[in-house]
Amino acid sequence: MAKNYLTVKSFSNDNRTYHLTRAASGGHITCTCPAYAFSTESPKTCKHIQVYGWKLGERKTATLTVTVQMDNASFTDGAGELENLLGKVAAAVEDGHTAGALRDLNGNTVCRYEVK
Ligand SMILES: [Zn+2]
Question: pLDDT for 52-97, tens place per residue?
Fold first, then answer.
């Protein structure tokens, strides 16, 4: 059975947390953040629900876009490097990041990702 309560960090302030709750009887998830309180969508939503909702069993799918710079020098080991990058993207998404870029040792962007 899926959890029905989750504490998440604010995306803009690491010292602030919000609480996602899903009633035991099911239904939609609520969040304690201001964006949820002022949401005009029906049902109400916020970035926390969009990113973490799957952990409470509401979202069945998410779209993760990963763009990889395939001509990067590190791609001499193509599949291995791709596995490495996807692992890092997975860790970042699990950590609550909704978008970002991964860079190589020289500071070149080798991968961008976005969750919607
Ligand atoms: Zn929220």
Answer: 887 787 666 778 899 988 776 666 666 788 888 899 998 888 777 7
Same domain for 68 and 103, yes or no, is yes
CA angle (96 as vertex; 91, 101 as ends), nearest 5: 65
CA of 43 to the centre of ligand 1 (A): 13
Decide: helix, strand or coil at residue 99.
strand
Q: Give distance in angstroms: CA of 95 to centre of ligand 1.
A: 15
CA of 75 to the centre of ligand 1 (A): 38
Q: What is the mean pLDDT of the chain?
A: 84
The residue segments making up the domain with residue 42 are 5-56
The verdict on 91 and 48 lying in the same domain is: no
Number of compact structural domains in the chain: 2
Q: From ligand 1's centre to the CA of 91, what distance in Å? A: 21
Contact 67, 15 (CB under 8 A): no
- pLDDT score at 22: 87
Domain co-membership, 73 together with 40: no
pTM above 0.85, yes or no: no
Ligand 1 centroid to Cα of residue 70, in Å, is: 35
Same domain, 111 and 68: yes
